[in-house]
């Protein structure tokens, strides 16, 4: 009779148990290193450390056991006689090197990801998987990848050699094939139960976002984000009966010159008409990659990174309290083109069924403009080509820029100066045809690896984000200098706004100061210089711009024309892919995907972390913005369909 607990029975499982132990140890080491990296933003106490490492141990065990499941299945099916063969054991040892290297690689990747985003792996990491060319290229241009991978391979080999007795499985001739399946079945059952009990929110026991992030595990967070990349508002967030949400939103939308178009209780359409003649000026909207407000001297920066933008701030309209809706370029594009609060989960730019929406491009197209989206990279990234071409923009991307006109390019696209050269040619072409032009130009140079042509600024290429900021500022100034020589310049409005901040990391889930971005509108001879100190959202840019042009149009934007908004009604929207924020002058309402609502005090543009007194009616108004926008998107309330204007009807379905 076979022994039930023969010592050799567990020989084949030594490698699984040892790798799981190594995964847990590496997780604890990484957790400690990231804690030190926060620089005091996550407090350290023995009790807090016990909780963080205790909760983290559970996540590490669940993630490690899940990650190593293929190895367990392999070990369960491989015959014992194979495990006794020297050649096969050598191959197994090499396999163990690969597994150990993978674990080390995950740790290094998490460190780099934290350095960029101040977070463990999340929805952004999942999103980037779709664009391996750009992401891998960015990593190769930013880090010594060959050196890192070689070092990981050497360390992994050394660890496997040192621990070869534990890591390389041994034969167990005295155990039947069926008995070998006992442990895998038990592990699968335990892991399944753990996934049912422990979810991504289980770690969120602190008001400090860093503490919660440190308690998690990057592998677990990655696969959790993969499962929840699109969130239906009414299923995950606190909501109202749809008629009530829409009624509240309908009350908040009208302004003196934007009245509701119908009595339909579910219709958000307004008629915009200020009674003044329209100005069909050219418009160049520049959305600048990762330009936080605190890079500008006006907001306290003393390093002289943005001399041209600082000068423009005195020559045009400067919006001093404007907030980005999110932390990714696609969020900025969504807000600027569609004028909508951020949708939870995936941006509309990347969702299916996003064609023929009411967009800034469709408004300009209805007025006879040439409308373009001009991008220095390949527009398939983040679905930009598909989205903009389906919403009444002509897409001009890297494919349209001749190689002989490129001074420099990296994995994200051509240098900003070359992008602007292309934009000048597009504007020239429209002027030659006698047509007004609207261009949305998206820059890329202020993005890791921060490379650009030498000799433009006093910071060497590839050195720092500060160099990327200063080069982009130079390129914008150079573009305006060249544009000033064009016959169409005197009839052009330039709008310059960031797509998002350089970093979104902070102590709270929605650190308000990490969403503060600059916005400028510059049009010599048409718009007088001034400072606009009212609280504003990125979604207010489009209707404010159209208001300055005195356009008459049917609108399905949810932003405000800030010059047509009564004092006291200002608000802004900020978000991650899960947390939705509604910001007013003194408070932030945060809606989370577990149906929770928090209200905290805001002072001097920062979340103080203290509860803010808000009435249930005020919270309901906040909910109505997000719920109403989600409902309208899913019920064609944000599309061109149903609008009465013949010009819109002619656009619908036309690509």
Structural class: alpha/beta
Q: Oligomeric status of the shown chains?
A: single chain
User: Can you tell me the residue ranges where pLDDT is under 50 for at least 5 consecutive residues?
Assistant: 1-8
Helix coverage percent of residues?
40-55%
Distance between the termini: 76 Å
- Strand content is 5-15%
Number of strands: 19
Walkthrough of the structure:
By secondary structure, this protein is α/β, with parallel strands linked by helices. It is 43% helix and 13% strand. The chain contains 24 helices and 19 strands. The strands form 4 sheets. Strands 3, 4, 5, 6, 9, 10, 11, 12 and 13 form a 9-stranded mixed β-sheet that branches. The chain has a 5-stranded antiparallel β-sheet with strand order 15-16-17-18-19, with helices on one face. A 3-stranded antiparallel β-sheet has the order 1-2-14, with no helix packed on it. Helix 5 (86-117) packs across helix 8. The longest helix has 32 residues, at 86-117. The radius of gyration is 28 Å and the shape is globular. Mean pLDDT is 88; it is low at 1-8.
